[in-house]
Amino acid sequence: MPIEILGMIATTPGSESQALTGPIVDPGFVRDFSRAHEEAGFDRVLIGYSASSPDGFAVAAAALHATERLKVLIAHRPGFVAPTVVARKLATLDHLTGGGRVAIHHITGGSEADQRRDGDWSEKADRYRRTGEFIDVLRSSLTSESPFDYEGEFYHVEGAYSAVKPATDAGIPIFFGGLSDGAVDVGAAHADVYMLFGEPLAAVGEHVRTIRAAAAARGRSIEFSLSTRPIIGATEEEAWAKARRIYDETKTLQERKLTGNTLAFAAPRRQERTSVSANLLQEHAQLSDVHDERLWLGITKLTGPSGNSTAPVGTPEQVAEALLKYYDLGVSKFLIRGFDPLGDVVDWGQELVPLLREGARRRDEEAARRVA
């Protein structure tokens, strides 16, 4: 099973433990951050999305032109740009940057407040149905050799056609995330890759089984990605000391009412329930700060429902082995980003990334021998 290692880039430095400084869009940082991922052996980088953050397509173009092989995953929220337009944007960017380097990640939207920043007042259940239709039209635009019609609940096009198609036979991979009611149906029916947060092993295993079964019932197969925040040290003690420092730095920023969130440049006017995926992480955090020996949820509990925040802690060998246990469950893509965003990428390239690839290779060889 091919393993793919993803990172995440932003337009300015910042994290839960590092306050935002400097310009919102720093071209030099985008260039250096992108190149660091390529030099560290990453396959692809995610460009996140929020209603207050810089445009992901523009950031992706900058990252692609700053590198030679690195691929991008552009997060996108259906409902604001027509799927036919997005298809042409993706295919055009694919051609202009060497071909086969562009993918799209569909975020249906777990925050009502953030949806409304861009004028979307739809209900979440409606948004999932809209996402399904969006992907239908997007995929048809990217693949249809002749004009096509589509009439759905949310999209109605007549004679739609894109002269520009993806630059390679691999097309534009379609990623998807979410565990709300309706999410599994949409993802199983439409996605190539289903993105999961770094929950404990048992929970991730259950998600994989449920989603895989739903896809199989539709005659489809699907891949899985897992997002975590590794914390490594030369020794296990050093790694846990580093985790405690990150916790203290994050708590200090909270007390000073500062933020390092590179996807939120304006505080919400009111608190709200967030996505089911993020809330599940909180449930795990309330049960224990540490799961499966080294999956640390200290930052998860401290910051509240905010997405990818769980951290495998240990030496590079220990963290690689902890992540590869998810590989055994069927996860083939690992999105890792750091609390020291650029510095961690450089460090991971020295040991963690090679260990992940080697560990996956050995597991594949062992599986092949068992079959033979």
Automatic annotation (TrEMBL):
<dbReference type="InterPro" id="IPR011251">
    <property type="entry name" value="Luciferase-like_dom"/>
</dbReference>
<keyword id="KW-0560">Oxidoreductase</keyword>
<keyword id="KW-0503">Monooxygenase</keyword>
<dbReference type="InterPro" id="IPR050172">
    <property type="entry name" value="SsuD_RutA_monooxygenase"/>
</dbReference>
<protein>
    <submittedName>
        <fullName>Flavin-dependent oxidoreductase, F420-dependent methylene-tetrahydromethanopterin reductase</fullName>
    </submittedName>
</protein>
<keyword id="KW-0288">FMN</keyword>
<dbReference type="Pfam" id="PF00296">
    <property type="entry name" value="Bac_luciferase"/>
</dbReference>
<dbReference type="InterPro" id="IPR036661">
    <property type="entry name" value="Luciferase-like_sf"/>
</dbReference>
<feature type="domain" description="Luciferase-like">
    <location>
        <begin position="21"/>
        <end position="332"/>
    </location>
</feature>
<dbReference type="GO" id="GO:0046306">
    <property type="term" value="P:alkanesulfonate catabolic process"/>
</dbReference>
<dbReference type="GO" id="GO:0008726">
    <property type="term" value="F:alkanesulfonate monooxygenase activity"/>
</dbReference>
<keyword id="KW-0285">Flavoprotein</keyword>
